[in-house]
Design a protein that fits this description.
The structure holds 2 protein chains of 2 kinds. Chain A is 49% helix and 18% strand. Chain A is α+β, with helices and mostly antiparallel strands. Chain A has 2 domains: 171 residues, no CATH class; 187 residues, no CATH class. The two termini of chain A are 30 Å apart. Chain B is of the alpha/beta class. Chain B has one domain: 3-Layer(aba) Sandwich (Rossmann fold). In chain B, the strands form 3 sheets. In chain B, strands 7-8-9-3-10-11 form a 6-stranded mixed sheet, with helices on both faces. A 3-stranded antiparallel sheet of chain B has the order 2-1-4, with no helix packed on it. The chains are: A alpha+beta, B alpha/beta. At the A-B interface, helix 1, helix 9 and helix 10 of A face helix 1, helix 2 and helix 3 of B.
């Protein structure tokens, strides 16, 4: 540390090269921590549970053949055939899947004559087994019963019934105590609906929708010419079951299977853009870190080559190899820390702008501190080899002609 | 130095830079080393100043066999007991005069007060105390060499090795530097000066000549005076 004061004075004298390096480090830090924060935000977003047991689950979108009066019979036949397949745990008709990018939502009113709704909610329709079959977690109230279930030939939910809602929506219905939402009546499409129970979660169809966590589950089986079956297979049986389901459904003449996707595929598709932008941000960060590390290495290497005689003089005047190495490490530490302090302020400012204009979460302090530590270590590692080379400069170089 | 020699060996060739020689220099002597370019003067100075290792023979400095010293010990020895004055001054351009002189003292772990006293005393001795905050580029060549001498004497070395100390100076400035070196020598510091200038060499008490790597004692002013 005894070289610190002269190093600082020399850097002030030299100005341009240290300034450029400081600028590079501060910009890298500013971009890196904000990008890391964005990546983390996206990861959090993407890892939100849908509420459905996604493992070993898939859905199939197909058609119910024949005239509409036969839809119910065909549906029952399909369900019976699918449930009979070896490896199938459960099968439910379901009018949409969480994160499926296709779905329904309804405006929910507290009273029939209210001008403004409580909010919009995602809408799911299935049979009374939906909680068990989709692996939902009932956390308050009662489960649906057979007596609650209705079959709708019109393909809508305009039927008065007992419903389940998600906890997120219960918090809107009863802000003081979400549990108190049980038993309350709410109105959708001018129809009263009694809240029978609350499930922990069941996300809506659109991952970026503000109301993705607020959903309503109706015990209404919508029977139309197209139908979705949600299937859960025994562990490890997913592929076989999907193959079998395909075969069994295609045994019916006129059957068209429009789509068959695992819930894993549904999630990947839903977050495709987020995944891509996360990867892009990671690439930018890696690129920036690589460029900065290369910049520090190159500058240090150039500095050592340019100052060989000076290093030789230092050695001649009594600096040990270790002292020469420490000199370069310390010099870089001063430059890096200056860049990091400036970068810290810049990162905070950028984060504030992002929070203000794009609603992002401000970069947390641990991110800033760990980012500083990481970049500092990277800088020191980058300079270590040139510093080692500097320490190997022979003192005799001091007497060679300039 | 007994039977001391230096050879540079590469994969193809062995170059004998210094033929084996014996030389003893006592404390407080002023010795000039002269010879034409490429004769081995600087090699001799590098070996004598512990900047380079010799290939064979025995070199005892202040009673210590230098071949048994580690690199770190040699660094410490150079720092404490040896001062260097280089032909190109070798001042650090980014540091002012004060910090240039301070540099070797910092390696020696002197406290701030002692360093300050030594720096100011050395600057006064070379007549540049009023310019301690100037940078080397703001000085003339002669002044820069004075700073280099101040840097060499600030640590109170036993011996100063001067490599062509007036080589880059005009005759007037050179004369000033030689006077300064003589004054330093008069205070008891051994000076070993490599030069190609016969006139300046004559100012030393002893002259050692190196030609084609062969070292020989040419004359001694004291001997001449006695004769």
């Amino acid at each position: 540390m005894k070289d610190l004061a002269p190093i600082i004075k020399a850097l002030f004298k030299e100005k341009l090269v240290p300034f450029l390096l400081i600028l590079q480090i501060s910009v890298t830090f500013m971009v890196m921590v904000n990008a890391a924060n964005m990546i983390s935000e996206r990861e959090k977003l993407m890892s939100r549970p849908t509420g459905v047991d996604e493992e070993n689950a898939f859905y199939v979108l197909t058609n119910l053949q024949g005239p509409s009066e036969k839809f119910v019979a065909n549906l029952s036949h399909d369900l019976a055939s699918l449930r009979a397949i070896e490896g199938v745990q459960v099968v439910s008709p379901l009018n949409g899947v969480p994160l499926g990018l296709w779905g329904n939502y309804v405006s929910v009113y507290r009273n029939l004559d209210d001008e403004y709704p409580i909010d919009n909610a995602g809408y799911y329709g299935s049979d009374e087994h939906i909680v068990e079959n989709l692996g939902l977690n009932l956390i308050a109230g009662e489960n649906l019963a057979l007596s609650d279930t209705t079959v709708s030939m019109t393909g809508n939910h305009n039927i008065s019934s007992s419903i389940l809602i998600t906890k997120a929506f219960a918090e809107l219905v009863s802000p003081d105590d979400w549990r108190q939402a049980v038993g309350q009546t709410i109105y959708t499409t001018n129809t009263p609906q009694r809240i029978k129970g609350i499930v922990e979660a069941m996300q809506g169809a659109w991952p970026r929708w503000y109301g993705v966590n607020g959903s309503i589950i109706y015990p209404v089986i919508e029977v139309d010419n197209t139908i979705r079956y949600f299937v859960r297979a025994e562990p490890g049986q997913l592929e076989n079951v999907m193959e079998e389901v395909n075969k069994v459904l295609l045994n019916t003449p006129g059957r068209v299977i429009e789509k068959m996707q695992t819930m894993e595929e549904v999630r990947l598709r839903a977050y495709k853009d987020d995944n891509a932008s996360s990867k892009l941000l990671i690439s930018v960060c890696v690129g920036l870190l690589f460029a900065t590390s290369l910049g520090i290495y190159g500058q240090a290497r150039f500095s050592v080559n340019r100052r060989k005689r000076q290093i030789g003089t230092r050695r001649a005047l009594g600096a040990s190899k270790g002292q020469v190495m420490r000199f370069f490490m310390l010099e870089n530490a001063v430059v890096s820390l200056t860049g990091l302090v400036i970068g810290f302020i810049a990162a905070l400012s950028l984060s504030e702008q992002f929070a203000q204009h794009f609603g992002l979460t401000p970069v947390p302090l641990p991110y800033l501190l760990s980012g500083m530590a990481a970049l500092f270590v990277l800088g020191q590692l980058s300079v270590s080899y040139p510093a080692l080379q500097a320490s190997r400069v022979e003192p005799a170089i001091a007497t060679r002609s300039a | 130095m007994t039977g001391l020699a230096k050879a540079y060996i590469t994969s193809d060739i062995k170059t004998q830079a210094l033929q084996p020689f014996d030389l003893a220099i006592g404390q407080g002597e002023f010795v000039s080393v002269i010879g034409p370019s490429g004769s081995g003067k600087t090699t001799f100075l590098n070996i004598a100043g512990l900047l380079e290792n010799h290939s064979e023979g025995l070199y005892e400095l202040d009673g210590q066999d230098v071949s048994k010293m580690s690199d770190k010990q040699k660094s410490a020895y150079r720092n404490e007991k040896i001062g260097f004055v280089f032909q190109s001054f070798n001042l650090i351009p980014e540091l002012n005069l004060y910090d240039n002189i301070d540099m070797p003292l910092r390696y020696r772990k002197f406290n701030t007060k002692e360093r300050d006293e030594r720096i100011m005393k050395a600057l006064e001795q070379v007549g540049l105390a009023g310019r301690k905050n100037h940078y080397p580029t703001q000085l003339s060549g002669g002044q820069q060499q004075r700073v280099a001498i101040a840097r060499a004497i600030a640590g109170s070395p036993r011996v100063i090795f001067a490599d062509e100390p007036t080589g880059n100076l005009d005759s007037k400035m050179a004369q000033g530097i030689m006077t300064l070196l003589q004054d330093i020598n008069a205070s008891g510091t051994t000076i070993i000066m490599v030069t190609h200038d016969n006139e300046q060499a004559q100012l030393a008490q002893r002259i050692v000549q190196i030609k084609d790597g062969v070292l020989s004692e040419e004359s001694s002013i004291l001997t001449q005076a006695i004769a």
